[in-house]
Amino acid sequence: MALFVNHLTHIDVSLWCSTRGLVGCSWQVDALLEGELGDDGMLFDFGEVKPWIKRTLDSGLDHTLLVPTQAPGVEVSECDEGVCVRTTHPYVMEVRGPAQAFTLLPWESITLERVTQHLSAQLTEQRPTNVERVTLTLSDEQINGAAYGYSHGLKRHLGNCQRIAHGHRSRLHIFQQQERQAGLEQQWGAWLDNRYLLEEADIAEQTASRLICRYEAAQGHFSISLPAERCSVLPTPTTVENIARWLAEQIAKQTGTATCVHAFEGINKGATALANP
Ligand SMILES: Nc1nc2c(c(=O)[nH]1)N=C([C@H](O)[C@H](O)COP(=O)(O)OP(=O)(O)OP(=O)(O)O)CN2
């Protein structure tokens, strides 16, 4: 007997890729549970499936930086903050933070298939009575049009969004005179893709070529060092509300036209902002 729960939750992470660098991802999670029926005629109460799986994901890989420890140029060590990840390919990056902000995976690269198998095995190991196997399916949101992946951290967030390198893959909708602007969406989506967004106040050191962002949050001390060209600096915290407002202002200035931006934070949620030139 098998039980399925589609659209169970989402996972928002950043991952390190030896060709693309720091990549923000959002994955939809569907679950399949196989096993025997209990005396109550159920495999596992639907009311418990969702919280159990969500709890496991939220306290594990969700909102972490996924690090393929066998990838070329990746080095992981202990440091005062907890864990230090250094990379060389395709660019030099250093991230420091408490251990819970990282998921270290003994692979050469992070793929959706490997992450899916890893999480399915973890859940199967912790399975409740009657359940023999748990299989997750992770998928990218199908987006017809502009999309971008970004990474960031919100130091004031009391939950896991405070982690300095977690990310999202998001749609981007830009309206002028009530019409979607596909050209602008493609242009800005491509510009934003694989960027690190940070708040100006968190810049600890800056040169023409490198930027270091550092902050203290409830979970501990965090820092990230990246090539300046991979970063975009906002005057405010990088909440989706502020990202929407910042984009609307930039685009209104660029085009000389009143602009409304619908910025998404991962799948199915976001903020809208309107700006005049
Ligand atoms: N009003 C806002 N609230 C939150 C923002 C924001 O920008 N504006 N941002 C965050 C974090 O960046 C976080 O990454 C969002 O993660 P989310 O998926 O919403 O968090 P949860 O895991 O709690 O939600 P799910 O139910 O698992 O999708 C937080 N809040």
Automatic annotation (TrEMBL):
Pfam families: PTPS. Pathway: Purine metabolism; 7-cyano-7-deazaguanine biosynthesis. It catalyses: 7,8-dihydroneopterin 3'-triphosphate + H2O = 6-carboxy-5,6,7,8-tetrahydropterin + triphosphate + acetaldehyde + 2 H(+). Its EC number is 4.1.2.50. It is an enzyme of class 4 (lyase). Transmembrane segments: none annotated. InterPro entries: 6-PTP_synth/QueD, 6-PTP_synth/QueD_sf. Belongs to the PTPS family. QueD subfamily. This is 6-carboxy-5,6,7,8-tetrahydropterin synthase. It comes from Vreelandella lutescens.
